[in-house]
Specification:
With about 325 residues, the chain is of the alpha+beta class. The protein has helices spanning about 5-30, 145-160, 165-170, 190-195, 215-220, 235-240, 300-310; strands at about 40-50, 50-55, 65-70, 75-80, 85, 95-105, 105, 115, 125-130, 225-230, 250-260, 265-270, 275-280, 285, 295-300, 315. Helix 2 (about 145-160) packs across helix 3 (about 165-170). The N and C termini lie far apart (about 90 Å).
Length: about 325
């Protein structure tokens, strides 16, 4: 007798097979995680003559761990970690660090750099250095009067803002690069330049210009905020810059760090000085961004006090 299969039974069997083909693989499928969000707010603080503590904010909930790097050496840490003490250093070591999060999908963007200097034995334990990019006020003309725009550009660059020196000059020096005068921190143009980039001056009791002492400056640096400061040419600029004549008087620099005793008494102040120049092979003055010259130039506390008091302690931090 010939065997037959009903159309209804065949349809049911086919439907079941199709359903199994759709559902079964999903039961065994794995989900690839998203790349973790990048950490933020890195800090570096010298905790001894041989160690720097690095901290950061954990902005992800799916990281496998974090990598801390000084660009030459990296350390891998577990999930939910927010600090690491980098040891094995020598006294007086200047070192910068950045951090990334990672998982099986890949790595996040790196944070910005955070830097610190381990103190010498004589300093006893407190030191701070912010890695503020150096920007020269020398712009193809004579550089005169552009220390303010250059210093503001350094601050903006430190916070990761894409503002060029030429843009800062155009924003705060409406007369152009060769216009006389210097930048007023509180001018509408200067404030607008910061606000347009999501920044503002730090205010105390409503006042911007609150840098009346070394301790006030130290407090801002400890909070990872560089300080823009007016100084008077009282720290030997003509010696630093090869005896350039006429470069005296009011000047604006960025305070980037300090060395202090264990009790907090500042011994050395570090500045980025936009005026720093050297003679080129053609005899022209060109920017000198070398560390210890234009970038992170070291001043004794007494020399800085003389320069800052000559400028009326006119300064401001930015956040």
């Amino acid at each position: 007798m010939k065997r037959t299969i009903s159309t209804r039974a065949a349809s049911v069997g086919l439907a079941a097979a199709l359903l199994a083909s759709l559902v079964a693989p999903a039961a065994f499928a794995s989900t690839t995680p998203a790349i973790p969000a990048a950490p933020s707010n890195p800090t570096a603080t010298a905790v001894s003559a041989t160690a720097i503590q690095v901290t950061w904010a954990d902005n992800s909930n799916n990281e496998t761990g974090f990598v801390v790097s000084d660009s030459l050496t990296s350390v891998t840490l577990g999930a939910n970690t927010t600090s690491y003490t980098w040891g094995g250093l020598t006294a007086g070591t200047y070192k910068c660090f950045h951090v990334e999060a990672y998982n099986s999908a890949g790595a996040s963007a790196w944070t910005g750099w955070a830097c610190a200097t381990t103190p010498t034995a004589a300093q006893g334990g407190q030191s701070k250095r912010l890695n503020v990019p150096f920007i020269s006020q020398w712009n193809g003309t004579n550089g005169g009067g552009n220390c303010g725009p250059a210093s503001l550009t350094m601050i903006l660059s430190y916070y990761g803002k894409s503002v060029t020196f030429q843009q800062a000059v155009a924003a705060v020096r409406l007369g152009g690069p060769a216009a006389p005068g210097w930048t007023d921190f509180e001018s509408a143009n200067s404030v607008a330049l910061l606000q347009n980039n999501g920044l503002t001056y730090v205010r105390t009791n409503g006042a911007v210009l609150n840098m009346g002492s070394l301790s006030a400056i130290k407090a801002q640096l400890d909070a990872n905020r560089p300080v823009i400061m007016e100084v008077w040419n009282a720290y030997g600029q003509n010696t630093i810059y090869g005896g350039i004549s006429g470069m005296v008087g009011d000047h604006i620099v960025v305070v980037t760090g300090y060395d202090a005793t264990a009790s907090g008494t500042i011994q050395t102040i570090y500045i980025n000085d936009p005026l720093a120049v050297v003679r080129s092979s053609t005899g022209a003055w060109v920017a000198d961004p070398r560390e210890g010259y234009g970038k992170d130039y070291a001043l004794s506390a007494s020399d800085f006090i003389s320069a800052a008091s000559g400028g009326g302690w006119y300064g401001a931090a930015v956040q």
